[in-house]
Design a protein that fits this description.
Strands 1-2 form a two-stranded antiparallel sheet. The longest helix has 32 residues. It starts with 5 loop residues before the first strand and ends with a helix. The protein is mostly helical. It is elongated. The protein is 73% helix and 2% strand. A hairpin with a 2-residue loop joins strand 1 and strand 2. It has one domain.
Length: 165
């Protein structure tokens, strides 16, 4: 199983997923900070992080989708794990999109409460973490996107170290 979308033989999808995960987390943390201190700065940081997270999630999803469609055989366990990974990420994206939609138009005068935003972000981030677990499972257990090389034998190891001395 392999990755279809690569840069210099490195899969693109795993390189991009850290951005939406971080930005989703920043959305939640900023909304909590706004709730605690009522500083409009934190609302704006949360809203901007949310919008950036949505964009980066879509950008990360494109190579991930192509890897899933083309790079993973249809009858493999990784195909099913990948499908669950995809669905959970789409649910997270929908929740964060709803979160952004709720607060669109509040940039200059923040809302009095972001309780709904915190709830949406918390559930969305939970889906993201579950999807991340599944993504890592595909890499670790199914070797999706890895270039496998033969493991050296103990004799190779001993011979390499004799020559190094």
């Amino acid at each position: 199983m392999y990755s279809v979308v690569k840069v210099f033989e490195h899969p693109v999808h795993p390189m991009l997923v850290g951005f939406p995960i971080t930005l989703y987390s920043a959305t939640l943390a900023s909304y909590v900070a706004f709730t605690i201190g009522s500083d409009p700065f934190w609302f704006r940081v949360g809203f901007a992080a949310n919008v950036a997270a949505i964009a980066m999630a879509v950008i990360a999803a494109i190579p991930g989708f192509f890897d899933w469609i083309v790079g993973i055989p249809g009858k493999s366990a990784a195909k099913g794990i990948g499908a669950r990974h995809l669905v959970m990420n789409l649910l997270a994206l929908a929740l964060f999109t709803a979160d952004a939609w709720v607060y669109d138009g509040y940039w200059t005068v923040p809302p009095s409460s972001v309780t709904l935003g915190i709830a949406l972000a918390l559930v969305g981030l939970t889906f993201t973490l579950a999807a991340s677990w599944l993504g890592w499972t595909m890499v670790q257990e199914q070797q999706v996107g890895l270039t496998l090389v033969p493991q050296p034998t103990r004799i190779d190891y001993i011979e390499d170290h004799r020559h190094a001395a």
